[in-house]
Amino acid sequence: MRPIFLRSVFRVAIIATPILLGLHYFITHVLALIHIFFQHPGIAITQREVANAYLNGTLQESRKAPQIPKIIHQIFHNWKDPANETLPSDWEQQRHTCIDINPDWEYRLWTHKSSLAFLSTHYPTFLPAYLSYPHPVQRVDALRYFLLYHYGGIYLDLDNGCLPSIKSGSSSLDALTYFPLWITDGGRGALSNNILAARPNHPFWGRVVAELIEGRGALPLGSLTERLAGFWKRWWCLWGVLRYVEISWGVGQWFIGGVWDKYHRMLQLGKKDAVGGKIVLEGVDEEIGDHLWIFSMVLGSLVGLMGWLVRRYWRAQRGKGYRKVKGEDMEDRSE
C-alpha cells in the first residue's frame, strides 16, 4: 500500500504552517499599530503642573540632582540647498526665544554637515541606513533620537519656542531636567516627537537606536532599489495619506509610540534589558512575548490541525480492514 494519505498530511502541514505563522505576524503588527492610538503607559503631567510644583517647592524630583543635561538640540536641514544654513525668519525668532530665556543652557543647531559628521564619528554603522531613507524628514526624525541617546538634553522642532519663566531668575526649562525621560502627548492618540528629552544613554532611546541600526524604515542600497524608491515617491506616494503613514510608522511618531509602549511592557514584566543601559536588538522572543495569547492561539491551531490529520489517517487505515491478497500471493501460500 502506498502512503498516499500520509503524503497528503505532510503536504497540508507544509502549506498550513507558513500561512498560520504569516497570520500571526500580520495580526500582531496590526494590533501593535492600533494600540499606539489608545492610552499610553507612564505618568501624564503637564508642563505647567511641573513648573508650578517646581516653583512651590513641591516637586519631589527637584530634591535630587538634575538628570537631563542643559543642552537644547534643534535640527535644520535645507532640503533644497543643503549648503545654505540660513534659517527662515520665523524659525530664527522661535529659536531665540529658547536661547535668550535659557542663557546658561548649551545650544546646538544641527545642519546637514554637522549631522553627517556626528553619525560618521559615533554611529558609522547606521550611516548607510540614514542615507537610504526615501524621505528627507526621516533623516531629521532619526537624527534626534541618536542625539538624545548620545548627549541627552531637550530636543525641540524649530517651529516650537520657549515661554518666559513664571519666576524671574529661573530658567523656563530647568524644571523639566529632573525627569530622566519624557515625551510629549499631543492628545490626538499617538505620541509626538516634536519635543523630547532624556538623560544620556537612557535605555528607552537605546532600544529606539537599536531598531534604527537594524534598518527600520531604510531601503537597501543598489540601483534596482533606488529605481523602485523613485517610482514609489513619484507615483504611489502621490497619495498623501500613504506617504504620511510610511513616514510616521517608519521612523516617525507612530514608531516612537510603539517602542514607548513596548518598553513599558518590558518594565512591567521586569525584564532586565528594559532597566539597564544595554542596547538590545529586537528579536523573535520579544515579538512572541508581546502577544503571547495570539501566539498560543496560532500554535494551538497548528497542533490541532496536525492532530486532526493524524486521526483521519489512522481511521482511514482501520477502515480498510484486511489487505486483499493478490493471486501470486495465493499461489505462493498454496505451495
Automatic annotation (TrEMBL):
Keywords: Membrane, Transferase, Transmembrane, Transmembrane helix. It is found in: Membrane. One of its GO terms (cellular component) is membrane. It comes from the Eukaryota. The chain crosses the membrane at residues 12-38, 292-310. Pfam families: Gly_transf_sug. GO terms for molecular function: mannosyltransferase activity. GO terms for biological process: mannosyl-inositol phosphorylceramide biosynthetic process. Its main location: membrane. Belongs to the glycosyltransferase 32 family. This is Mannosyl phosphorylinositol ceramide synthase SUR1. It comes from Neurospora tetrasperma (strain FGSC 2508 / ATCC MYA-4615 / P0657).
